[in-house]
Amino acid sequence: MAETQRRDIFRQSSVIAAASFMVIAAFIGTGAAGGTPVQDLQGGALDADGSFLAPGRPAFGIWTVIYAGLLAYTVWQALPGQRASARQRSMGWWIALTMVLNGGWLVASQFGPLVSTVVAIIALLAALGWTFHRAVVTKEHQSPWPDSLLVDGVTGMHLGWVSVATVANVAAWLTAVGPASWGAQAHLWGVVVLVLVLVIGLAISWASGWRLAPPFAMAWGCLWIGLERLGGQPYAPDVGFTALIVAGLLVLVPSTARVVTLLRQGGD
Question: Does the predicted model carry a pTM greater than 0.90?
């Protein structure tokens, strides 16, 4: 029993350490602690005008919500009542990993080449995909609302946003390293990738019982891609209108399916 308790305390402490690293990296990444803001790094490749699939700067305000949710989770899982929780034992290490990789992307953006940010964000996306899967399969029918919000909701939002951020990051890298001739196909590929984002977002929601956090976060990113392509540079109305349509469908389809599912369950 004592050994099990020590392992639980170590897990809780590790989550706190991961959150601390993430926050420190975020302060550096935003320039608040003396670092260069992300939008000014890599020759501006990660800014709103870095590619056809870059969202406008206001989109990144979602990080405030995600970080607040992750910090709230860190406090929640550290409570004595959560120490021996089977779900925390299953989820704690994975959520800690996503926080470390989140901070790792910011470190890569500050100190590494642009390609290192691609590697870092793909690793984060993979970890979030697996973590969200575990959140779905370990979900208990009568889980307390803080558990549902801070495990399922925050992880789902994190996954959804990073899915769009990965697209933008890869597009920024390809734009920076690709030959000028690729520009002729950029509009077409922008539309194709956005359609794939729609398919992936709906598939995630469907496979998770029509959970809303992932597609809603993806919709937020697509909304700001659309607005930026219609009102900023590079100007691309075909990509912009496609992004807005994708954003609408990512909200409408899962919401409708969720309501229908709840109505059917209520009628059983």
Answer: yes
